[in-house]
Amino acid sequence: MRASSAYQCSLCPRSDQMQRGLKEIETPESRQGTRLHSYRAHPDWERRLLSPDEQDLLRMGARLEREIFATINLSGDAAYIEHREAAMEWGDGLVTGHPDLMRIYPELDITVVIDEKYGWVPVPPADVNLQLRCYAIMAPTRLVYVAISQPRLPAEDRITIARYDEERKKQAEQHILSILRASQASDAPLIAGEEQCRYCLAKAICPALAKAVTMELAFVADLAPDFAPELSKAKVLDVTESRLAQASDTQLGQLLTACALAFLVSTPLKDEIRRRIAAGEMKGYTLGKEAEVRTITEARSAISLLVLGRALKREEILALCDLPLQKIEHAYRKASGASAKEARAEINRLLADVIEIEKRKPRILKKNEH
Fold first, then answer.
1. Do residue 156 and residue 267 come from a single domain?
2. Residue 147 near residue 161 (C-beta atoms within 8 A)
3. Listed residues 123, 155, 184: the one ending a domain
């Protein structure tokens, strides 16, 4: 079991078996996370190749690391051995992992482990975080400090630290062993849920997830086009709103979870169906025509060609353009060396008369139960 999968396995014991042999799912966010971890492990790499935001995150990661060590406050002159992204294991390979930083102080019999999270989604704090619990039992010393840094979170939530002494390490070993035993059992259950399904490689083929979505969405399933083709979109919306208004808080919470699960599985599900149709499977379904999306790759040349061809005047072209504020701020930062906060303030000041602020609906967040 990978340390990073321990929490997932605790929520859905069979998930480890379901994911064996499946290919990792790459997203722009996961690729950025891998890139940032690699740069943190190799401080000599040229960082000017990264975007200003990524450079900010790396600087913040380094600052949070210093804060963690200052908080733990070990002897300043104690010798240590440092590993970054080194492969570690426990129990002859029963648990494996790659801590971002493991610093061992042999004379003090202390290890400090830091795990950096560069995503937007908060993770469980260090004292209950199962990935760090795995790292704690991997550490070769009597006393272990484990810490999480999350640069994207509000300042007060960016760092959490936990301490494992000998007694707590023994308890942690028993806890991780219980998760391992449950996940390796032949009758290990599949238990769908937003947290455990979010990063699961098997979500497109998981019967428990499909059942969970189907069961909760049965609330409005009879309104689907296949069952009620005579209903207009307006009528479907009207009936749906009426049913939701009469639903209990519990029903609404279950529906929200089902919709989140359906969203998680949507893209990999469609990719799997496309693959099967191409292989001659999935009878009753066919592939439509591939859509062609046109993109202008060089805006400056495009403007010149349109003006020279007398298709449009330059002012008419400018009236069609949308200026992405984030890209403007990035360009300003690159030219001026300003911080993200300074760039945002300056661009807001300069464009105050032409910036329109749109307020969007707030996200619905489940209260943290950790």
1. no
2. yes
3. 184
Cβ 13 vs Cβ 195: under 8 Å: no
In-domain check, residue 87: yes
User: To which residue do tokens 């630290």 refer?
Assistant: 161
Q: What is the pTM of this model?
A: 0.73
Which structural domain range is residue 267 located in?
194-278
Instruction: Tell me if 330 is assigned to some domain.
Output: yes
Kindly report which listed range (1-10, 15-24, 344-353) carries the lowest average pLDDT score: 15-24
Using alpha carbons, list the distances in angstroms from residue 239 to 15, 58, 234, 259, 291: 37, 50, 9, 18, 33
* pLDDT tens profile 128-145: 999 999 999 999 999 999
Pair 262, 319 in one domain? no
State the alpha helices, DSSP H only, in the chain.
6-11, 15-19, 28-41, 52-72, 130-138, 166-184, 194-198, 207-221, 233-246, 249-278, 299-308, 314-320, 325-336, 340-350
